[in-house]
Amino acid sequence: MRKRENATLAGLRSRWLGAASAGAALLWCAAAPAALAQPADWGLLGPRGGAVSSLAPVPAGAGAVWAGVAGHGLWRSVDGGVSWVGAPLPAAASFATVAADPIDPLTVYAATGDGVEKSTDAGATWRLVHTGVAVVSLAAAAAAPTALYEVDTGPDFYGGSMLVSKSTDAGATWQQVKLPWPWVNQVSLAVDPTDANRVYVAGKPLIGAPQIVVTADGGATWQELTVPPLSPLPIKLTVDPRDHLVIYANTTAQGELYRSMDGGASWKRADGGLGLSVVSLTGDPGSGSLYALVSGVVSEIWKSIDYSDSWSRVFQGPSPSALVLTLAVDAGLPGRVYAGAQGAGIMSSDDYGDSWRTTNVGLDAVQVIDLTREASAPATLYAVLAAGGAPAAARSDDGGATWAPIEGLHDLHRIVADPYFPGRVYAAAGGDVWTSTDGGRSWRALGVPNANSVEVDPDIPGLLVATRTGSSPDLGTAASISMDVGQTWMPIPQNQFQTADGSLASFSTAAFDAGSPSYGATIYIGGASGLLVTFNGGGTWFQRGQTLPQGQAIVRLRVSRSSDGTVSLYAVLSPGAHTLYRGDAAGSAWTAVDGGLPPGIPVRDLYVGPEGGTLYAGTDAGIYRSPDGGTSWSALNGGLTEPRVTRLLKDPTGPTLYAGTAGGLYVSPPRTPLCSPSDTVLCLLLDRFAAQLTWRLADGTTGSGHARTLADGSGGFWFFSPENTEVFLKMLDGSGVNGHSWLFSGSLSNVGYSLTLTDVSTGDHRTYDNPAGKLSSFTDTQSFRGAPGAQAGSDIWNFGTIGNPPGPTDPCSPTRTVLCLLQGRFRVEIQWQLGGTATPPAMNVPLSQVSGAFWFFGPQALEVVVKILDGRAVDGHFWVFTGGMSSLSYTVVVTDTLTGAQRAYNHPGSDPASEFHPF
Known about the structure:
The chain is built from 3 helices and 78 strands.
């Protein structure tokens, strides 16, 4: 890409240069552009994130990053981790780690339980290039694009022996690397970033103490190194990205970190000041900074700028449930560091780790296990969520648009809101039933041992049923009933019924007949032990469901009562020939009603309408609707990009239906037709606005601009190279000022282009044309109405910021207010003013080696972008481009750190302007 840019630099010079323009002409379109959001049954709410266990930036990719998400395969970003698109693997569940091609951003390798998968088209298709082995780790050699190394169990796995294999032809062929001894347990492999033939391996031989060996010839010969006093295994190795003689060794159990400055001949402790267990290390080849992921009660990230002699903490996780799993440095974007977390997805830092933010746009990999809502506040939802770790509770007060974690519960199975008492919530967690009277802020155990689920009667205040799976003999109960919001419980003795095989009782779900009187409540409980029914509030129980298939557990029970008083009981069963049945009020006569559903696909949940006629079934193949009690079914999957449905929830006061899935929460009908981001579509302001751009050259050549998301309200387009963004956009919600949404545009190119902006919630659209030869900035604060629609989803956890001096060793030292461009030669700063009063310096966001952006009030609204190109081969100057999207007064100061020359470019408080300056 860099060669292509240099080759076209002279030819494009006349199109880049030109007088600054006061603005671009506003044109009205005769017809709307191609549909940016198709009509759908469902819209995704979020929450966004996932358990990100592996990160692989492309060193030459200028913002191309791969992420491995537990249970959800691979995801890809082309904008420095701001937004993500799924690239599902053929065997996502067995995914171990991801390795990126160091040069080609479209080529990626994934280690799986079946071998090594390779894609050359950004994850669209995959090919198994190394078969017959279970690969546990994979590394691409940064110094040689075609060299790969992996650790596997081998085709003849015996006694825990681990093997090392390598490929020198981009995975086409593989050969086993002969180690000095047979190795067992976990083996750590580290490839020298500067020499693809130098590889370090640590592990334990079949006989003897742990060893560390190194090869300088790709595995032909090995040299044994000194082993630091680390225990237990595994020993993890990290090679300093700038010096292969500097090696770090650690284990995750003891919190010890050792460093060797002589290639492993001698070691010394290097964890002074950390005081916690070191999980992993990663180094920045540009600044020399070293980042350590450490674990304690919460995850922390520490940084060293002096080869681990001293450390400073740059991040601390908000809670034990948000564990950081992996770190990675983006060599193509100075200052960019990524962190993958268990529940919060991906975080990124633009300032060498000094501040962090979640960057999960498009990363929908959080599983919804359970879902409930407040009866008195329909917008208040409670959910049980899982993202690779133990399920955790979360609360939303805006109908699922944003979520906040609920702390204090562990081993969570079920959560349900009380329909009669606002703020009262019950949860089955940790082998007990818990209650909260303040919306989940505090919890109290109710003393129901071994409870795995709890249900609330929707019509009888205070009536609860707690069920147990695998009740123990000493408890002697299968379930318990409470009539006083859980203060006291009446057990249902096991000796009142018999299991088919004489085993202990096991029940997991309950349901209530809404029309039964309070003195004789009808309750149904079901599970692996069959079906129990009581018609008098638990006084007498009857075994029912004998005609249901034996060996299939009852997973869900639902009850409906029609207008004529007829009661229908529905049972969702575990996988079998049929998984959905309808029974009578007594639970005696049953009929399979899943004939119209996809055969062999499990049903996970069922919603029954108030009159019992309309059913919604959540399955592993999406959502299906029956208008006639299960006689016929039709798919309702438009817009449902994750088909594995886990939970259904209906708002009884309106048409809203929620679907919890393995990849987030969906709502039907969609709240607003949201923008769908892609390579050529930029989505702004909570996915309400869609921007597209077409550029044109004088010779008639045209092309589409490639979208790059920078924040929810900011982004841009690149034309010829992904590291060279040409046009930037910023949108603000100005509805509180003039009732409109505001567009600001700044250009770093005078190539002719047309920009189309569409409000996907209304269909309104405008096209803005920039003629060739003009370097334009413009604003539009009148064309689009304000008050954007519902959010498209948000992160569960919001991480705080811990500031520390970065202290990199480049000629230009980047900080939050200092942007370093062209390999650190140029220092860029901006001072801005508000009402004639001096303000703090602008904060920057590095975009590539040649460009960056600055914000004044917040990172979601970028104000000025700066690009510096080396044009000396054309006219003997460096070229400085500034694109303003602000009408405030500001001064851009550029310093050449090599010569000391400095230029100040002043923009008075006026209309936004884009400018070009030879330096």
